[in-house]
Amino acid sequence: MAKAVECRDYRDYHNDTCTFIRTTDDCKLEDGFIDYLQLVFCVIGDKLLGLGLTVLAGWLFVLFVALGVTADSYFCPALRVIARVLKLSENIAGVTFLAFGNGAPDIFSAIAAVSSAKGGDVGLAFGALFGAGVFVTTVVAGTICLVTPFRSIQRPLLRDIIFFIIASFGAYVAMYDGKIYFAESLGFIIMYVVYLIVLIGGYFVNRRIKDRRALLQAAHTEAAAKTYGSIQTPETTAVSVDEVETAIPDESYVQPDVSLALYLRHAFLPRDDVPWSERGKCGKVLSIVKLPVSLILHFTVPLVDYEKPEHNWNKLLNSFHLLSGPLVVSLLTQLGFYKIANVFPIWAVVAIVGTILCFAMLIVTEHHSKPRYHAGFAFLGFAVSVVWIYSVANEIVNLLTTFGIVFDISNTILGLTFLAWGNSLSDYVSNVVSARQGYPNMGISACYGGPLL
164-184: per-residue pLDDT in tens? Predict the structure, then answer.
């Protein structure tokens, strides 16, 4: 049986490396917009290979910055708003929304890697999954504990670890004989369903216990008040009516009239809280690198922030997000390039519907007063930021794959190292950023909920 041709065999074709790269199936990179192998060997050429790898390393740095900005500025704020709107605890939000947002791209990329495996070699896919699981449960969890000292929620954490250990041992048993049967595959899915049932059931039971304790405490307090009378404390001070009126924001406040150009500038250009003059040299360089990324994200991802006036409502920009957000999702996932009845592309349908929603939002909303359904933009921002993180992570994985092929690293080692690290980047950034912004238990829960998924 002839050995399957691998992409790393390009060294045997010194005279025509470019043709080999273009015609070999193993050299085709999946789920990316740039074919880095053809860029290196066909556009740049073998003689300038070192220069090409240096340029790609710089581009890799830019992608890392884009990944960090997306998670820090858009993904985590949207997740906080969703958890607040749905009244979810940190643990529930971590093992559901945060885990799904981090784990869904790994599922799709693993399925694609298995389906496109050459000669039955699935070492790349399984190596990436297990390598990512080890990386997230060790490096990411350890980093969260280092950057944000906190008190963990013992019982939910113990539950997540027990299920993760069971799933890991089950994977070892299933793969020990080199074959995976239907019953074993179905067993893993049933295991995750049981995990969700235990998770959600435990949440409602715990909340019911807390409600009962609160009612008992209120009853004891009321009984004590009837017995001993109301308790007057010397620290109690009277608050004047003027102070109360000052503390309550004036709902009738209207921003002063400004020129149209200045209004559009404030509406559409992203603003940084740190002035340019107060930044160091590294901060200024990083700001310049981040500027194109920030502009793209600003125009495509809605940001709901409860710490800003009107929860960061911006009529013109948020109305535009109804068009740009779904359109970007359709293009980045490449679903928009499919055609309905082989005639009408899906991205055009999304653009038409988005334009209608955009103009409808402009008509029914006001400039300085957020609508009641403004929190719904957080769900749109969550979805769009997940797709951005997924797309940027795919580009990073393709770059790392290119480096692995150039430096002749085996598929299994490549899956356990470069691809595992690349697939775990979104987990690392979003989980650590969530912990740094005051939600460490959410980040730790996602460290086990994501790999378990």
Answer: 899 889 888 888 887 888 999
Task: Tell me how far CA of residue 421 lies from CA of 209, 299, 401, 425, in angstroms.
Answer: 41, 29, 11, 6
For the cut 80, the answer to whether the pLDDT of residue 294 exceeds it is yes
**CB-facing half-sphere around the CA of 58: CA atoms within 13 A:** 6
Strands 344-345 and 339-340: antiparallel
Look at residue 272 and tell me whether its pLDDT is greater than 80: no
Rg for the chain, CA atoms, rounded: 26
CA pair distance 270, 379, nearest whole angstrom: 21
Listed in sequence order, the residues at least 6 apart from 109 whose beta carbon sits closer than 8 Å to its beta carbon are 30, 31, 128, 394, 397, 423
| Lowest-confidence region among 117-121, 244-248, 370-374, 392-396 | 244-248
Residues 6+ apart with CB under 8 A from 430: 71, 75, 76, 79, 98, 101, 102, 389, 446
Residue 311: exposed, middle, or buried by beta-carbon count in 10 A (0-12, 13-18, 19+)? middle
Note the pLDDT tens digit of each residue in 368-409. 888 888 889 999 998 898 888 878 877 877 887 788 888 877
CA distance linking residue 397 with residue 30, whole number of Å: 10
In degrees rounded to 5, what are phi and psi of residue 35?
A: -90, 95
Element (H, E) at 60: helix 49-70
* Residue 361: per-residue pLDDT: 92
Are 133 and 451 in contact, with CB atoms under 8 Å apart? yes
Interatomic CA distance for residues 263 and 317, integer angstroms: 12
Q: Are 387 and 333 within 8 A, CB to CB? A: yes
Q: Which two tokens stand for residue 314?
A: 């911006």
345 CB contacts (<8 Å, ≥6 apart)? 336, 337, 338, 339
User: Where does 178-275 have alpha helices with state H?
Assistant: 182-228, 241-247, 260-268
- HSE-up of 434 (CA within 13 Å, CB side)? 33
Q: Which residues pair with 340 in a beta bridge?
A: 344
C-alpha 31 chain-centroid distance: 17
277-292 pLDDT, tens per residue? 777 777 778 778 888 8
User: Is 90 exceeded by the pLDDT of residue 326?
Assistant: yes
Distance CA 164, CA 169 (A): 9
**Alpha-carbon distances of 33 from 29, 68, 159, rounded to whole Å:** 9, 20, 40
What ranges do the domains of the chain cover? 8-222+279-313+370-450
Dihedral, CA of residue 55, residue 59, residue 61 and residue 62, to nearest 10: 140
